[in-house]
C-alpha cells in the first residue's frame, strides 16, 4: 500500500491488490493514520483485485472514524470484483465514489457529490 499526497490538504491512500484478513489490519492502520479532523482523504482502489469481508469491515471502520472526526473520504478507481463488493455491501451509498483521482480531488475541494449511478465501474468495464 502506498501513501501519496495530491495536495497540501488532501491525502491519498493506494490500496494493495488484496484487501483481506491478511492485509486488513495494516490497511486500516494506514488509512486511520491519514484521517485528520476535518481532513480530506482519497482511497484509491485501482490495484484492488480482491476484497473480502475483512476489507469491507475496514472501510466500515474508516467511515465511522471519518464521521467522528469530520473528515471527508472519497473512494475512487474501484472496478471488477472489488466494485461489486462495494455495491453489494452498500458502501457505494455511504461513501462518495469517484471514477478517478482528478474527480475525487474536485469533489473534495469543491464539495461536489457524484451521481450514485455513475460511482463504480461495473464488472468488465474499462478503468
Structural notes for this entry:
The longest helix has 17 residues. The C terminus is likely disordered. It is globular, with a radius of gyration of 13 Å. It contains 5 helices and 7 strands; from the N terminus they run βββαββαβααβα. Helix 1 runs parallel beside helix 2. The strands form 2 sheets. Strands 1-2-4-6-7 form a 5-stranded mixed sheet, sandwiched between helices. Strands 3-5 form a two-stranded parallel sheet. The chain has 127 residues and is an alpha/beta fold.
Topology (elements, then pairings):
Layout: E1 2-7, E2 10-14, E3 18-19, H1 24-34, E4 40-44, E5 50-51, H2 53-69, E6 72-76, H3 80-89, H4 91-94, E7 96-98, H5 101-110
Parallel strand pairs: 2-4, 3-5, 4-6, 6-7
Antiparallel strand pairs: 1-2
Oligomeric description of these chains: single chain
Return residue spans where pLDDT drops below 50 for at least 5 consecutive residues: 115-127
Give the beta-strand count: 7
The CA-CA distance between the termini, in Å, is 19 Å
Overall average residue pLDDT: 83
Structural class of the secondary elements?
Answer: alpha/beta
Dominant shape: globular
Helix and strand succession? EEEHEEHEHHEH
What is the helix content? 40-55%
Placed side by side, the strands forming the largest sheet appear as 1-2-4-6-7
What about the largest sheet? 5 strands, mixed
Strand content: 15-25%
Radius of gyration (Å): 13 Å
The number of distinct helices, counting runs of at least 4 residues, comes to 5
Amino acid at each position: 500500500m502506498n501513501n501519496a499526497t495530491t495536495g497540501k490538504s488532501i491525502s491519498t491512500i493506494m490500496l494493495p491488490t488484496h484487501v483481506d484478513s491478511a492485509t486488513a489490519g495494516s490497511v486500516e492502520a494506514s488509512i486511520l493514520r491519514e484521517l485528520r479532523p476535518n481532513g480530506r482523504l482519497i482511497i484509491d482502489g485501482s490495484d484492488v483485485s480482491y476484497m473480502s469481508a475483512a476489507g469491507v469491515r475496514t472501510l466500515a471502520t474508516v467511515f465511522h472514524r471519518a464521521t467522528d472526526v469530520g473528515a471527508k473520504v472519497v473512494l475512487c478507481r474501484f472496478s471488477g470484483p472489488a466494485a461489486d463488493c462495494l455495491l453489494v455491501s452498500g458502501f457505494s451509498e455511504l461513501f462518495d465514489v469517484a471514477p478517478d483521482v482528478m474527480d475525487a480531488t474536485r469533489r473534495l475541494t469543491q464539495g461536489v457529490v457524484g451521481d450514485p449511478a455513475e460511482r463504480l465501474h461495473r464488472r468488465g468495464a474499462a478503468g
